[in-house]
Amino acid sequence: MVVAALVVPLIAGIPNREIHAATPDDTIIQAGQHDLATNLLVGSVAASEGDNASAALAFRNAAHLAPTFRLFGERAFYYSILAGSPEAATLAHAQPPGVMSALVLGNAAALAGKWDEALTQYQGAPADQIMTLLRPLLRAWALQGAGRTDEALATLEPARQDRALGGYYTLHAALVAQLSGQQMRADTLFRQAGSMTGGDLFTSLVMARWLVTQGHVADAQALINQRITGMPVLEAARANIMTMIQHPVVTHATQGLAQAYGLIALLIDQQFYARDGVDDDHQPADAAMEIGTLRGTEQMMLRMALMLDPADSEARLLLSSTLHARKQDRQAREALDGAPADDPLLPVYRTEQADLDVVMGHKEQAARELRDLLRQAPDDRMLWSSLGDALLDQQKWAEALDAYQHAMALTHHPLEGDDWRLLFGQAIAQERQDHWPQARALLQHALQLSPNEADLLNYLGYSMVEHGGDPAQAETYLRRALALAPSDNQIRDSVGWVLMRLGHVAEGLPLLEQSAEQMPQDPAINYHLGVAYWMAGRRLEAVNEWQNAIQFQPDPMDRRKITAALTYARAWQANAGHPGVALPADLRPAVAPAAPSHSQANGTHH
């Protein structure tokens, strides 16, 4: 895919300087100095927290207070786009010539039906690698909006020869012809685009709709089923999506413009997907800056798509996913709130919001929402799976297991791909109810489906040691997990803990210290480090770690272990190394298989 060049060019005219480096001279800030400083502080903090609407307002106020300092107005413009605010069009008039200002002004003209003005803006946007992809679609849809269909199709003709994206441009050409009433010409173009089997929801809907008009209803339904299989979250809206293909997908040129921006966002998202799970938070500085720029560009493209077409379901879902990837979960949830009341994908949005509630710790709210959705769609396996996740997070093991088993019963195909998650959820619920043989079988089955999942390897290896399994095999699983996710502190803690439990204290202790340094308020990690210190003969440091751990609200199982360790340590100190009480199991190496233990570290470590 042509994604290698999607980096900085689109933000032409928007400086990448940090706000704290932007200090106007004394003559600018003599009047309203305190208010200016306050707005700059508010804007900077809001921007760092992903609150783009508040950042835009604060920088707009700063620009009003210091009108000759152009950077503030540019920042207000930038964050207005990220917030999806109509104010961006007003601010665009004051911006220097650039891609973003041309696009925003062109979009505003299109929404107002001023197609010639929109065309002028799109044509006048500075050339760069992204505009090479975007401009043919923007020009074609502006020309179609102006009633100049032949020119629109001619504009797309060179782009249709592109080896990577030619099919996508052909699909748009077919829609332009169809919207203009040139059905025979549209049919020819749809046939030429027919090799596109639906890599995204929009393409699938368009092609399925055309198949319906040709009398091939079964083929259309098969295409939609294929798309839902590839994107299981859509399951909640299967019936609604099937209804969508009974009606035209694009009825206005602004919807075509929205899809043009969606294309750029999809290409950027594919670039992140190709990174195969590399953690964005642990990149070199230059790579991290590039990632941030890409994410910001993707978000701006999606905001423009939704400004042009609020019913663009795919853009809404991708925007929420992008915000979640940036750890802006509240904003990700809010992005799903803005859908029209009649949006066919509302059940999907509600499911995604429930999943975000789980991530944000709103566990009971998530479970209530999912149960409500299940009353409307009791045969939706994805909803049952999400409910299992929510209940697991609440440590309602039996209820979570029941939800996962409902999802399994509704799985009408051999387990494959992401189905390992269903097995993993069941395994955790079984293990926490002391059903280790069942849990082990589920984990091993899940590992057959997805042998390189670090979380699976971590949980299996850790639990094997805790339940008296083969120590050498457990160590192999954990070392593989750490090799797959070297920056994961929870996995590093698990490896260090198990190495220490197997008697390799000198090797395990540095890993535990590193984990505690990165996550100093995690009670399980503090407990583990304390045990390692105790076994290394560093008794005072061990007690200090356990005292820290007890303050950080450990779960009931961990609390019992920490309390037992502190009780033993106090007795040991009081009686000169002869405590007279039983040594807790964790304070002695587990080299030989031991009896199954009821004490498990909290769920984040598995």
Features:
TPR-like_helical_dom_sf; 606 residues; globular; disordered N terminus; mainly alpha; Tetratricopeptide repeat protein; TPR repeat; 31 helices
Protein architecture, described:
InterPro entries: TPR-like_helical_dom_sf, TPR_rpt. Keywords: TPR repeat. Pfam families: TPR_15, TPR_16. TPR repeats lie at residues 523-556. It comes from Komagataeibacter intermedius NRIC 0521. The protein is globular. Helix 20 (363-376) runs antiparallel to helix 21, helix 24 packs antiparallel against helix 25 and helix 27 (489-501) runs antiparallel to helix 28 (505-518). The protein starts with 25 loop residues before the first helix and ends in a 32-residue tail after the last helix. The longest helix is centred in the middle third of the chain and has 24 residues, at 285-308. With 606 residues, it is mainly alpha-helical. 67% of the residues lie in helices and 0% in strands. The protein has helices at residues 26-29, 33-48, 52-65, 70-83, 87-92, 99-111, 115-124, 129-145, 149-156, 166-179, 183-192, 201-213, 217-230, 238-244, 253-274, 285-308, 313-325, 329-335, 346-359, 363-376, 381-393, 397-409, 420-432, 436-449, 454-466, 471-484, 489-501, 505-518, 523-535, 539-551, 556-574. The protein is built from 31 helices and no strands.
